[in-house]
Amino acid sequence: MKQPLVLILFAAAALAGCRSQQGAETAQGTEIGIEPSWMDTSVKPGDDFNAYANGHWIATHAMPEDRAEIGASYLADQLREKNTRELFDGILKANPTSGNDALIANYYKAYLNTDAIDRAGLSPEKADLDAIAAIADKRQLAAAIGGTIRADTDPLNASNFFTQHLFGVFISQGLNTPGEQLPYLMQGGIGLPEREYYLSADPKMAEIRNKYHAYVAQFLQLAGNADPQGTANRIIDLETKIATVHATREESDDFAKGATVWTRAEVERNAPGLDWGALLGAAQLGSIQKFEAYHSGAIPKLAALVASEPLENWKDWLAFHALNEHSSALPKPFRDASFAFYGTTLSGTPKQRPRDQLALNATSGALQDAVGKAYVDKYFPASAKTEVQGMVAGIKAAFAKRVQALDWMAPATKQEALKKVETIVVGVGYPDSWRDYSALTISPTDAYANQKAVGLLEYQHQLSKIGKPLDRTEWWMPPQLVNAVNLPVQNALNFPAAILVKPYFDPKADAAYNYGGIGATIGHEISHSFDNNGALFDSTGRLRNWWTPQDFKRFEQAGNALVKQYDAYEPLPGLHINGKLTLGENIADVAGLAASYDAYKASLGGKPAPVVNGLTGDQRFFIAFAQSWICKMRDETLRQRIATDGHSPDMFRIPTVRNIDAWYPAFDVQPGQKLYLPPDQRVRVWG
Fold it and tell me: Domains along the chain?
């Protein structure tokens, strides 16, 4: 599992849901889009809009044993997986010997061949483990830590990417260095999802810690460690000390705290106790003279731990994480132990997915552009790209119109807000250019070596950006991913091809459906440029306060009201949503849904929306929104999501409708119903 680190620099939709069957046909021959069969119309919309829009589906769909959650993105991903399976079958049948198809085939075959992995035992990792065992002093330790550093490039990694990596590296424009790309130094080094897993007094967290300890000891025993319990004690103790000096998730979300640039000399001076020359040299950063010290408070404390903690404890920690990070390429006992902890204990999933499905997705994740280009060539029509681009233009115009209409915003603030909207770079479907894999060698038999090779190639690609101008068209998601993202330092958005399907988008459906589904997601991502974090970046992606104090105070008031609203939601007994942690996403939901509604109404060209299956256009719009967040989630996953994720759990994003005035007359929502909010308590962000 991996902890969200680079996620703090992105604002992602983090969708978690499902793909529907074809909708009913209207009298006009246009599909209604929404799924009437998912609804429970015995529930009053004003009491529980999720149950009204999705209740029958929730009641009748069992959770598969190999899933921690199901919902809208799960169902959309079923189509993505089906298409990818068909694509891979064709590649494997052709038996390619060169090019991207050969890389795909070899990576897939090596990952799938568990018999070969089991026979190899730990021999693929022997050189790495021997190198760790041979570390003789703290200088060599620093070099070993530096040699493990890789760049986090996945904005959706809600898990601990930097397990064995004490420091993470992320390459992008500096927060206060517009146009100049820097390596961000970030905290890492823990095997549980977030620091609170080590520090919280919650009995559930204590139980997870005990099981993590047992897991570490089990892994070490499988690896032949002479004292697995004692070694596990030392590793957990060290990780607890690491977690203690970490910035909190809320602190990590504060971009102003991360906008600290250190020269190489300042790195040495500000974080003594660590041989930075050895570490940065091994990390291929030895010649770099400027760093974004994103976790400037934690970095010195982590360096001090390297100095103060015994060398043998660090070696044990490195050895465990060298194995843990590559557990999917280790023999069956390791794979089973890893799933039992990360899959079952942390997420509540009782059964692991079949290996061929894991191989499919591992290959797609490792060779993102190779698979992505083949995927969009086969499955993403140009007409879909064109239609969504038109929706983007309409929603941008609606958002700009809302900003222009604000009577409380000073002209200077309004001018910069409009400039941000106008200059957002929106990528739909896939990037304009593709990654070159010609330097990559992939073995058809060595899954472990393949994982290392792919990670190194990606790291070197990221390092190559340092010092170069920012490419605002760069994509941070592969086309074959069901998600979307806002990139504040680029003032850019990505909408991958795989999300542009039902229940988000259907070219056969009417406007109400598409604006309520993918339109709300588009609005959400545009709105991230103006949430509590995105609003702090100007149109160039620079962290700059472009607000008047009075304007920002008004904006914060709306945010505080939304914090209070979400703090009141209680997904599990005694466990409330953290309204402050989820504020950015909740702001984007409210503002995005409002802008998409305006764009939907504008798309009608002044004509009334048709009534279809007894549902008005407004009703279909809001039902489509609710069905795009349909979700069932295991309690363990729900608990982890609330503790670590900046997004509210999917089913708690549906009550966003409470803040939209048009929702009330659409469903005759009256005072006394559970979701009713008086007009003066409805949160209005950006109009």
Answer: 6-83+382-395+426-430+475-681 (3.40.390.10), 122-330 (1.10.1380.10)
